[in-house]
Amino acid sequence: MQGKNEQYYKAYLSYNRISRRGLLRGVFHPIERAERSRESRLAPRPPFAAEENLFLAACNGCGECVVACPYNLIRLSGQKAVLELDYAACDLCGKCAESCATHALHPAFKKDTEFRPHFSENCLLKQNQACTLCQESCPQQAISADLQLNHDLCNGCGECKLSCFVSAIQLTLTN
Question: CA dist 12 to 48, 49, 104, Å?
Fold first, then answer.
C-alpha cells in the first residue's frame, strides 16, 4: 500500500491550522474541536471517506474504488467518488478503501456512509398497520418498533430502504 502523499498532507494542514493556543485547546477540549471541524458533505461519499476537504484534495478520480466495489454502488461524478444506494445496500466491506491509492478512502476513517433513513407518511407503521421489515432487515438493529433511529448504531448501509416495499424510506445525508 502506498503512503500518504504530499498533496494529502498539504490539504490536511491547510484545513487544520494549529496555533500553540489551538494545540492546548485541542488537548483540553478534543471533542469540542472535532465537532467544530466537521464539515458537511457536498455529495454522498463511500464509507471510509476522509473529511470532505481532505477527500476532495486527495481523490484524484482514478476510479479504482468504482472497480473494487462488488455491488457497483460507487461512481465518479466531477472526478470524485460518490455513493448511490438506490438499488443495493452497502455491506461496508472496505474493498473501496483498500483499493484507494491516495487514501481519500482509508480503513482508518469512519466506517459509515453518513446516510440516515427518514420515514415518510407512507410508512405502514405510521398508518397503524403491522410491518417490521425495516427493523428486521437492519443488520445494526438501529431501528426501534416506534421507528426511532439509534444514530450511534446506524451505519447508513441502506438495507432498511431496500426492504421497504412501499418506498416509505428515503436516505439522506447527516450534516
Answer: 16, 14, 11
